[in-house]
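Weekly sync, protein design subgroup
Attendees: M.S., D.O., the rotation student, P.L. (late)

Item 1: inverse folding check
M.S. brought a backbone from last month's batch and wanted to see whether the design step gives back something sensible before we order anything. D.O. pointed out we never logged the input encoding, so this time it goes straight into the notes. Structure tokens as presented (355 positions):
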């Protein structure tokens, strides 16, 4: 078989799958040509898609405003979010059908403002799951989010745990989903359509540790920071395999090719931004199993000995449930998502005022 690109070869010859890390239709179509089987959204992504293609979405937003004259800009913004997710779901639906519902999902993210309220997270997740058959719902791996992930899974929602950086978060997610599926099975409910994933934002792990080095005058081999997120993901993967969790790991937040190439061969998904998809499509990187290759022990040893912040994300018990919300990468990501959401709402507000 003649492969179109290394990504296409990976999708055809290994268990490793990849998604397009945005919801722009043209980007999804390009990614599908190279083996993509999913897509994702979040507040930052939706704002970026709006800005990049505002001429297309202004009439849509104006129509929503006309149809909902008493709605706030927040309510209209969520209608836009839902439309983008549904439009992306339609593009991926053939894949969903071809694979018997195992892949072909698009993720839509719950309101970041609910990250401390499991009831609101679960209620919104249930609503989103009804938008299309191939909708997956992103719920943050915060303390409240873990409860919402269990409850949402129990209610039959395919979840994607997000704002997740650590082995301890990944294990809490997998255990919550396991409990929910056991509850469903005990009640005779069907679990066959549930294909949950847990994201580890590997690039944001690297970002945070780099910031810690700068703030605390810590010096390690630069390659140690580059491989920190990779080390966390590989460690979580080995534990998932050993324990036989139903949940699949998903890597996100790409900063360099190791965030793709080091996970080839694993039974995982990767959500890759369009910029990196195009780079990988044109790369000469060989497709070979690297998931089982350990990170250089010397680099790992430096991180363990010199960076307590790394131990928090790497060790199984690096953080307790009540610490998830306070980890530096969690706080930074929440603030970025808040900012992205505000930007999206401001776009809608401006159109609303001028309508």
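Designed sequence read out in the meeting:
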């Amino acid at each position: 078989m003649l492969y179109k690109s290394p990504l296409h070869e990976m999708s055809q010859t290994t268990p490793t799958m990849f998604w397009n890390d945005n919801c722009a239709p043209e980007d999804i179509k390009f990614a599908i040509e190279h083996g993509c089987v999913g897509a994702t959204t979040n507040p930052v992504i939706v704002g970026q898609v709006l800005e990049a293609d505002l001429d297309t979405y202004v009439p849509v937003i104006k129509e929503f405003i006309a149809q909902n004259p008493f709605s706030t800009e927040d309510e209209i913004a969520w209608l836009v979010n839902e439309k983008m997710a549904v439009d992306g779901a339609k593009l991926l639906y053939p894949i969903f059908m071809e694979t018997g519902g195992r892949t072909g999902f698009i993720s839509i993210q719950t309101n970041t403002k609910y990250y401390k309220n499991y009831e609101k997270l679960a209620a919104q997740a249930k609503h989103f799951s009804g938008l299309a058959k191939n909708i997956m719902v992103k719920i943050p791996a915060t303390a409240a989010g873990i409860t919402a992930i269990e409850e949402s899974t129990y209610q039959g929602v395919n979840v994607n745990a997000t704002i997740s950086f650590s082995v301890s978060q990944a294990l809490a997610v997998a255990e919550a989903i396991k409990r929910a599926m056991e509850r469903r099975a005990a009640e005779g409910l069907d679990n066959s359509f549930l294909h949950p994933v847990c994201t580890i934002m590997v690039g944001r792990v690297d970002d945070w540790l780099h910031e810690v080095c700068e703030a605390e005058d810590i010096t390690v081999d630069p390659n140690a920071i580059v491989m920190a997120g990779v080390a966390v993901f590989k460690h979580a993967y080995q534990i998932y395999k050993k324990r036989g969790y139903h949940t699949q790991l998903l890597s996100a937040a790409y900063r360099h090719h190791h965030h793709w190439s080091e996970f080839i061969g694993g039974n995982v998904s990767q959500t890759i931004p369009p910029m990196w998809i195009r780079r990988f499509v044109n790369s000469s990187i060989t497709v070979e199993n690297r998931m089982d290759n350990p990170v250089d022990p010397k680099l790992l040893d430096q991180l363990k000995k010199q960076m307590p912040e790394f131990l928090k994300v790497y060790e199984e018990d690096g953080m307790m449930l009540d610490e998830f919300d306070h980890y530096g990468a969690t706080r930074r990501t929440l603030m970025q998502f808040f900012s992205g959401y505000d930007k999206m709402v401001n776009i809608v507000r401006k159109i609303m005022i001028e309508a």
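Discussion: The chain has one domain: 6-354. The CA atoms of residues 86 and 178 lie 28 Å apart.
Action: P.L. to compare against the previous round before Friday.
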